[in-house]
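Sample entry (379 residues):
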Amino acid sequence: MPNRVYLDWNATTPLRPEARAAMVAAFDLVGNPSSVHAEGRESRRLVEEARATLAVAVGAQPRNVVFTSAGTEANALALSPGLRGPSGAPVERLLVSAVEHASVLAGGRFPADKIGLIQVTRSGVVDLDHLKALLKDGSPALVSIMAANNETGALQPVTEAARIVHEAVGLLHVDAIQALGKMPFDINTVGADLATFSAHKIGGPKGVGAMVMSEGIGGLEPVLRGGGQELNRRAGTENVAGIAAFGAAVKAALQALPEDVKHMASLRDRLENGLREVPGTTVFAKDVARLPNTVLFTALGLKAETAVIGFDLEGIAVSSGSACSSGKVQPSHVLAAMGYDPAVAQGAVRLSLGWSTEPADINRALEAWRKLGNTLLKG
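Predicted structure, serialized as tokens:
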């Protein structure tokens, strides 16, 4: 679409040229990666090269990388009762932060009566004291805390959480889907036992994800059974073209990371300052460390659905929150967990930037917001 401005990068990103090239090249391969003939081995080579690329990028061993159909499946695979760490004690319950993605809040394969919610602060950051209290009251737990929130961009204290969880003989899963490509992320530095990723958040194709484990994690039961693919951890013929493109996107994203972070943070700050020029505008989680590209805001009396449509009519793509709820604008569960009134949560609009966002895009977004503010907030 000509003359459009795309500010919904947290929902999905444009395909990087490197990923597109890798995908097109892989489409020409005929072999099944599980076949032993030359054609199969060539497809297998692409899968294993991508596996090694992602492993190096996040500090894991290639044998501990499992490719999936998406981040949602990766989260479902990670949230598995019976997982064991170095202590050998299997996890019997799940604790998730109240601001997690819907695929984590669903609890994976844990029964509903074995799932607990960790409270967050008014700024949307996990309450570590509440986590400590929950860990003391019960059997070993798998704890799931995202690295960065997909709506507010708030960074979570995952390294501190890892220490607390491990002292309680538990395991930590980190949904790093929004973090990869926007901040450094290494499972060893963080202390994550399991982490999950998605290709289309970093310039790869939609429909490819990965679950990564640290050394010494056992007891993982596959969600999909029926074949020996992915070292018996996920049955089904691998998406060779998608996985090859995922690897290419990871490589490109990490190479450009320092420059991209600086670029996005500068534009984000400029965007926020301009948004607040409309009286009554509030930016959520602005007092804590956030992703360099994310702004969640509202204004008194604003309705998110009306605002998103208004931006769209001005040629600008924005979101009301998680893309997984698109088509049915609802109050944000993230803002509800942060203690905001439903009337406020119903007005939250998310603008998220990327590596190719330009100053002119920010100017157009601010022009649209001034126009919408004067129209939608009258009276």
